[in-house]
């Protein structure tokens, strides 16, 4: 069909898309135009300051990241969706963070990896659209390509980008995943929303490593999520004591955010805690073999950091744990059986307990 000259009322069509999206488990759907010039300027400034650290993929792809039609030829609009992931049944986060014998895993990673689930639901949404309009050009994304998903979600009215650089929604906080459909349908943009951070600086003040160097500006090189997930080498010593027991990601800036009192518990069973990851014992996790790590975390986003980084992160957390015989014995049991990179962190951890 000739979409440009069709008699479809696209405003009404978006309302139908929103209904389909809700039926597929998304909490909201909006549409963005392709003008990401403001986001492009912010990105270039961020890259120039080197705040991306070793995430070289943020520099690649030229201007495709901020010019959707360059990434997917023929794109006229972007459909943006969000899906809540807050695991209401999980152990209370602060109680875990404040227990040095336990390990804290970012709440988004307690269950199964969200990428496949989101992609499948977005593909089903595209099928709904195709039944209505006929064949059309589109491509589905879930954190899987150079896509400015936060900027797109903000333009589509799904929320605003907060001072911690996460997208916030007045009724759902920030605990949600984002996904996109780049499409050649001439959809009108939905209404954006105003920002509501005001004078609040809670996220900036609580960051353990002071990674939020200014409102709306994150130095990833200082961020615990970057240090535990993206960084593949040694964690700088200056940050190790500040990491506490956070072995995969860090939620402090979200946990403290006043808007997250409105966070909605997920209805997706895939996002609920598996293998007791919501409040596991550090010593137990450190004793996992690589086979156990791979089998127990099959389908989990945690698995992508690899076994070495898993041991590295836990070694740091054990160094920050309250001194006990079990902690020292666990660290010593791994000595001289691991890579040089992991050994460096074990040696550091033992030094924290005054063991040479």
Overall pLDDT level: 96
Summing up helix and strand content along with how strands pair, one would put the structural category as: alpha+beta
Instruction: Please work out how many helical segments DSSP would assign.
Output: 14
Give the overall shape: elongated
Family: Belongs to the QueG family.
EC number: 1.17.99.6
GO molecular function, one term: 4 iron, 4 sulfur cluster binding
Protein name: Epoxyqueuosine reductase
Please name the defining characteristics of this protein.
single chain, 356 residues, 2 domains, four-stranded antiparallel beta sheet, 14 helices, metal-binding, Epoxyqueuosine reductase, iron, cytoplasm, queuosine biosynthesis
Would you kindly provide a written description of the structure presented here, covering whatever features stand out?
There is one protein chain. This protein has helices spanning 10-23, 37-48, 68-71, 93-97, 114-133, 149-155, 202-206, 224-230, 252-255, 282-286, 290-296, 306-320, 325-334, 340-352; strands spanning 28-32, 77-84, 104-105, 138-141, 160-161, 167-168, 176-183, 212-214, 217-218, 246-248. It is an alpha+beta fold and 356 residues long. The mean pLDDT is 96. The protein folds into two domains: 3-101 and 109-183, no CATH class; 209-249 and 281-352, no CATH class.
How does the SSE layout of this entry go?
Blueprint: H1 10-23, E1 28-32, H2 37-48, H3 68-71, E2 77-84, H4 93-97, E3 104-105, H5 114-133, E4 138-141, H6 149-155, E5 160-161, E6 167-168, E7 176-183, H7 202-206, E8 212-214, E9 217-218, H8 224-230, E10 246-248, H9 252-255, H10 282-286, H11 290-296, H12 306-320, H13 325-334, H14 340-352
Parallel strand pairs: 3-10
Antiparallel strand pairs: 1-2, 2-7, 4-7, 5-6, 8-9
GO molecular function: 4 iron, 4 sulfur cluster binding; cobalamin binding; epoxyqueuosine reductase activity; metal ion binding
Catalytic activity: epoxyqueuosine(34) in tRNA + AH2 = queuosine(34) in tRNA + A + H2O
Pfam families: Fer4_16, QueG_DUF1730
């Amino acid at each position: 069909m000739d979409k440009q000259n069709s008699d479809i009322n696209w405003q009404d069509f978006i309302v139908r898309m929103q209904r389909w999206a809700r039926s597929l488990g998304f909490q909201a759907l909006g549409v963005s135009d392709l003008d990401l010039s403001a986001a492009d300027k912010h990105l270039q400034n961020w890259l120039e300051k080197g705040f991306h650290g070793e995430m070289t993929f943020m520099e690649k792809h030229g201007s495709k990241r901020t010019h959707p039609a360059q990434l997917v030829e023929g794109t006229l609009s972007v459909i943006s969706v969000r899906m809540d992931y807050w695991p209401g049944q999980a152990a209370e986060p602060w109680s875990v963070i404040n227990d040095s014998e336990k390990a804290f895993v970012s709440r988004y990673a307690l269950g199964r990896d969200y990428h496949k689930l989101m992609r499948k639901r977005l593909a089903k949404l595209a099928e709904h659209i195709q039944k209505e309009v006929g064949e059309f050009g589109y491509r589905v994304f879930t954190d899987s390509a150079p896509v400015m998903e936060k900027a797109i979600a903000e333009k589509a009215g799904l929320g605003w980008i907060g001072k911690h650089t996460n997208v916030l929604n007045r009724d759902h906080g920030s605990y949600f995943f984002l996904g996109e459909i780049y499409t050649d349908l001439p959809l009108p943009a939905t209404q954006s929303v105003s920002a509501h951070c005001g004078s609040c600086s809670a996220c900036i003040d609580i960051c353990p490593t002071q990674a939020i160097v200014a409102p709306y500006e994150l130095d990833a090189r200082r961020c615990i999520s970057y240090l535990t997930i993206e960084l593949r080498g040694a964690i700088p010593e200056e940050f190790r004591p500040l990491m506490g027991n956070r072995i995969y990601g860090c939620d402090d800036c979200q946990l403290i955010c006043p808007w997250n009192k409105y966070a909605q518990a997920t209805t997706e069973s895939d996002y609920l805690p598996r293998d007791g990851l919501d409040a596991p014992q550090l010593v137990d996790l450190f004793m996992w073999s690589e086979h156990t790590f791979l089998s127990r975390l099959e389908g989990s986003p945690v698995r992508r950091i690899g076994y070495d980084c898993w041991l590295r992160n836990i070694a740091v957390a054990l160094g920050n744990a309250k001194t006990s015989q079990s902690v020292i014995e666990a660290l010593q049991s791994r000595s001289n059986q691991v890579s040089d990179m992991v050994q460096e962190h074990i040696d550091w951890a033992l030094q924290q307990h005054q063991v040479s």
